[in-house]
Amino acid sequence: MKASSHAQTALITGASSGIGATYARRLAARGYDLLLVARNETRLRQLADELTAAHGVRVDLLSADLEQHADIEKVAARLRSDEQITLLVNSAGIALNGSLAEADLDSTHSLLQINLLALTMLASAAAVRFSLGGGGAIINIGSVVSLLPERFNAIYSASKAYVLSLSQSMHAELASHGVQVQVVLPGVTRTEIFERSGSSLAQIPPGMVMEVEDLVDAALRGFDQGELVTIPSLPDSSEWHALTQARLQLAPNLSHNQPAARYL
């Protein structure tokens, strides 16, 4: 594959379809070389051929199943060793259909492995090298369900709340080292995740469903603007800032040496 003239590479997980594949197309158009990570090597090769032909960038493939510890470590090792990687897009994720009581152990384990453990280990590997180098960026794909956990599947919602919290903490730790962190909170997006989880978009009002290209374009504009939290569907960003301020106002009273008076 033809090498590009620069040395910036984006590593994208879940790159064989949906949000990850769309990030690959958009970042290739921006001139990034790519390292695409997913289980489906056939799809990865098709996407790599498409992007090399369209943009002349270098596209490398790393076939990995992020449900497996050994494969997580394989990707993390590449992040630690490849100094050309300056951007990590943690896009891999799965969903579950049904309640917590209905969830089977194997499906729950798979979700937690991919949505939490793999994302955390890869973000950690990137954070170490990026902070030592004084630059780089990490984009974590969360979900708006982290803000409305009462309305959605408990395990998936909790996993995405973790992604939001982790990203906010990472920003606090890494900003002074020149590392940008962004967490993207999509609403309902037209991807394969619904069918894979055994649910369907057919029951969701069309006005609530965003096309994946629109989602990624909005997310990248938020990234360019330096946003920590990007909610592509939210018309007024001041609503998010108000929520953040309300949360921070709790800080002085969250830890005292005596219980609140109402408990005495």
TrEMBL record:
UniProt keyword annotations, A-Z: Oxidoreductase
Superkingdom of origin: Bacteria
InterPro entries found in the cross-reference section: NAD(P)-bd_dom_sf, Sc_DH/Rdtase_CS, SDR_fam
Matching CDD domains: SDR_c
Molecular-function GO terms, alphabetical: oxidoreductase activity
GO cellular component: membrane
Alphabetized Pfam families for the sequence: adh_short
UniProt xrefs under PANTHER family: DEHYDROGENASE/REDUCTASE SDR FAMILY MEMBER 7B, SHORT-CHAIN DEHYDROGENASE-RELATED
Family assignment from sequence similarity: Belongs to the short-chain dehydrogenases/reductases (SDR) family.
Protein name: SDR family oxidoreductase
Natural source organism: Halopseudomonas aestusnigri
